[in-house]
Design a protein that fits this description.
Helix content: 10-25%
Distance between the termini: 124 Å
């Protein structure tokens, strides 16, 4: 007879994990989860920062490109006569408005208080440029003209009230349209009292009342539409962020500040840089270049760990010392801020 050799297991013997083993496992799991959470948080913060940085850089690049192009083209009126244009707009007229009729060759670019847009952000500069609204190759005389009412090959997008330039490179006139007939491609300026053609008496002027241009222009002479544009910053309620505007159109959001310095000097050489407040009436005709500095911020807050300390307008600004703590400013929130500066020359004055 054989006896079973099985070992009896006491009834009160526990089978499984002990409480200590469970606690150790929970601790290790918590440490692992904490590490994963820190990695996720770090990656998420890095992604937010990189995204904000990309958007801020894009905003700064686009804004400076728009402003630089406007400055470079300031005062461009096509083929300018050597003696300049004959401006037939009466500056003493009660309807004269500098922001509409201000095509003085000496103020192709201007930032004085007299023309400051009402919606411009306080403490920021603005830039007003005068030039062409765009060249339309079809805007040419259809026949010779000396009268202020004449026919074009096409009136294009010309409208009543537009400021018009006509030039054959030897002579040139500026005037405001009183009417446009798109059916017959005819434009008139005689009906607008702000035009003063009385000093003009060119050969061949036989128009009623002697209302003539300063010269006789041949068939095919270019006719161009003038435009004055104001570039400024505004925080209008229609946009969540402050933005760069051109007249009533918002162009780029996220631009918080803009400061401008102008380079002036004789003989097409910049000898002095002046802030807008230091510019006098005699300085504007001598502006050769503009230095523009903007402060751009991210739309999202809590992007950086601590509020940034910035130096605006920046180290390239004439007279700005960013090593001086008095020129440093700590921002009020944790948005990402960047300062961008560029310099653009007025091509129509330096060439």
């Amino acid at each position: 007879m054989y006896r079973s050799m099985r070992t009896a297991v006491p009834i009160n013997k526990q089978v499984g994990l002990s409480i200590i083993e469970i606690m150790v496992a929970l601790l290790l799991s918590s440490l692992l989860l904490l590490g994963l959470f820190q990695v996720f948080t770090s990656n998420s913060q890095s992604f937010r920062l990189n995204e904000a940085n990309s958007r801020v850089q894009e905003t700064g690049r686009i804004a400076l490109e728009i402003l630089s192009r406007a400055v470079r083209n300031a005062g461009y009126y096509g083929c300018q006569p050597a003696g300049g244009f004959n401006n037939n707009i009466d500056t003493g007229h009660s309807d004269f408005d500098e922001s509409i009729h201000g095509f003085d060759q000496g103020q192709a670019i201007f930032s004085g208080n007299s023309g400051r847009p009402a919606d411009a952000l306080s403490g920021t500069d603005y830039i007003r440029v005068a030039g062409l609204a765009g060249e339309d190759l079809d805007l040419r005389l259809d026949g010779d003209a000396v009268s202020v009412d004449f026919s074009l090959v096409s009136v294009g997008d010309l409208e009543q009230g537009n400021i018009v330039f006509i030039t054959d490179c030897s002579s040139g006139d500026i005037f405001q349209l009183s009417s446009v007939d798109s059916d017959d491609n005819e434009i008139e300026a005689s009906g607008n009292s702000i035009n003063d053609f009385s000093p003009n008496n060119p050969e061949g002027c036989t128009a009623a009342g002697g209302v003539c241009l300063s010269a006789e222009y041949e068939d095919g002479t270019r006719v161009m539409k003038g435009a004055i544009s104001n570039y400024f910053l505004s925080d209008q309620p229609t946009h969540a962020e402050p933005a760069l505007y051109r007249d009533s159109d918002a162009l780029v959001s996220g631009v918080e500040r803009m400061q401008v310095q102008y380079g002036t000097g004789p003989n097409l050489t910049v000898t002095d840089w002046k802030s807008v407040g230091d510019m006098g009436a005699s300085d504007w005709p001598n502006v050769l270049a503009a230095r523009i500095s903007i402060l751009v911020r991210s739309a999202a807050d809590n992007v950086v760990v601590e509020p940034q300390t910035i130096c605006f307008p920046g180290p390239t600004w004439d007279g700005q010392d960013c090593s001086d703590s008095d020129n440093l400013e700590t921002m009020p929130d944790r948005r990402l801020y960047r300062v961008y500066t560029t310099t653009a020359a007025l091509r129509n004055r330096v060439q």
